[in-house]
Amino acid sequence: MSLRRKLKPWCWCVPAVLLILIIIVFPIIYTGYISLTNMNLYHWQDYEVIGLGNYARALFKFDSGFLSALGTTLLWTVLNMVIQLALGFLIALGLNAPKLKLSRLYKTLLMVPWAMPAYISILLWRVGMFNTELGLLNKWITALGFEKVDFLATNGIAFVSCLVLNLWMALPFMISTIDGALQSVDRSLYESATLDGAGFWTRTWKITIPSIRPVIAPAAVMTTFITFKQFDIIYLLTQQRGYMTGATLNTVITYVHQNAFVSNNYGLSSAVSMLLFVIIIIFSLATNRSLRED
Amino acid sequence: MKRKTKERIGYIALNLAFILLCLVTLIPIYYAVNVSFSGPGSSLSGDFSFLPEDPSLENYRAILFDEPFLLWLKNSLLLSVGTVAIAMLCAVTAAYACSRWRFKGRRPLLMALLVLNAFPQVLSLFAYYRILRLAGLLNSHIGLMLIYAGSMCVFAVWNMKGYFDSIPVEIEEASKIDGANDAQMIWRIVLPLAKPAIVVTCVMVLITVWNEYLFATTFLLNSDYYSLSAGLYQLQSNDYTRSWPLFTAASILASIPLLLIFFKIQKYMVSGLTAGGVKG
């Protein structure tokens, strides 16, 4: 009887655990195995285990491109998070101005990019905004009498284009989270602070930010992960098969994809996958712990 | 009096700022809508006008009837429904067990799911490719469905566990005392109470599958099997200068259902996403 009681919860978990083991865990283990081999286009079947060579190549050979991709990814994540938090906070503050009558309308309109399917947004921006012939930005630039700009041609400008698009897509979530947090702040705190002679910025700095911090923290951590893992924007804008735009911008995830499906370095690609997996495990365990203690 | 004028000017400036912000936000979409309604006579490289020149529904007719749009739609529906069925059948019982019972290995299991949820599936794309190839499941909906269901199952367990936690356990204990067994209790008490949670989780799984293009274009080799997202991807990657108006029409058609669903369940999206701490 007691054994049955002990086993019952696991029986209920069996379908999910089996599905996840086969579909999620096994491919990760298989990726780990590939990372130890010299599998590439010429060694599709007759590959052999070569040990940690791929890891050494990724980490210690600068021309493998992994370290620079990691640098790009870190810069991308930090810039995105700083701008998103700052802009999201400012916009949400504006939306919460007490006498802004149309704030509900503005809020709804600002949420639209979040509701759009991500790949459709990216593809619409690719042609509709950034393209040199059909893109609106270039139509406006030429209308003003300037020369056309290819927004995806070189790394610097492509990075900025991707950043702008990511902000467009990700800000609604930030705004809505911060807006929700702002509405939960106790109004009476503001009133007593005003009586004590605190101005708008003092109130924001001393009351608003400390009170919304615990609500924003999990959302910010989640967004950091999503931004770090962002693949679609850079892939769809600059490196679709047959439509490489000239920019050689890579984040770690696009680096893995490119090495697997374009340059066919399956071993190296898998090694980088495993490295990223370790990084992600460490970060998610670390942030989870710090969140719980809050 | 002077303070009031100052405040009024402040609000006018704020309103202007928001109107500008909304315009910037909506212009890419508005432009696409505009192009989608433009007739064949309008010049593609012409200047931006706020109303479509020579408005017509030609692009919509062409995408619906000249391109395999309806076939892709059918494939997408098939894939999403299949994925939701597999993922939810597996996830509901596990989420319930993890929410209600404290058993040995529960915390490690939940932690493992959390870590796996943070792992981007793109990273094992190549491994999937080889496995599907060996298993003969390339170019089939079953293989793709299983892959989607696996990752969605991880998400659904965490998401629904959060909701189950918020259902008071007393109701179930009362039904136990009344002599209901586990299956009856789940069927009669828990599922009806958890219906909103299950519906929202299903919808979120549905949206994810609906919007997935990378796995679909990598594993489906024959465009007859393409889902809507893979089809749209192919449409723009073939020759986008020619198909741009068609693509905008297809984008609008594919986005409208999602926009409607989104604004219906928006308030659950936030709570669901942040329920397990680190998600994504």
Give the helix/strand layout.
The complex is a heterodimer of chains A (294) and B (280).
Chain A: H1 2-35, H2 53-60, H3 66-95, H4 103-115, H5 118-130, H6 136-143, H7 155-183, H8 187-195, H9 200-228, H10 232-238, E1 239-240, E2 243-244, H11 252-261, H12 266-293
Antiparallel strand pairs in A: 1-2
Chain B: H1 2-36, H2 58-66, H3 69-100, H4 106-118, H5 125-135, H6 141-165, H7 170-177, H8 182-210, H9 214-219, H10 228-238, H11 240-274
Helix pairs in contact in B: 1-11, 2-11, 3-6, 3-8, 3-10, 4-6, 6-8, 7-8, 8-11, 10-11
Q: How does this model look, in words?
A:
- With 294 residues, chain A is mainly α.
- Chain A has a single domain, classed as MetI-like (MetI-like fold, Orthogonal Bundle), CATH 1.10.3720.10.
- Chain A is built from twelve helices and two strands, in the order H-H-H-H-H-H-H-H-H-H-E-E-H-H.
- In chain A, helix 2 packs across helix 12 and helix 7 crosses helix 9.
- Chain A is globular, with a radius of gyration of 24 Å.
- Chain A starts with a helix and ends with a helix.
- The model of chain A has no long low-confidence stretch (mean pLDDT 88).
- By secondary structure, chain B is mainly alpha-helical.
- Chain B folds into two domains: 55 residues, no CATH class; 207 residues, MetI-like fold.
- Chain B has eleven helices and no strands.
- The longest helix of chain B has 35 residues.
- In chain B, 41% of the residues are buried.
- The C terminus of chain B is likely disordered.
- Classes of the chains: A mainly alpha (294), B mainly alpha (280).
- At the A-B interface, helix 1, helix 3, helix 4, helix 5 and helix 6 of A face helix 1, helix 3, helix 4, helix 5 and helix 6 of B.
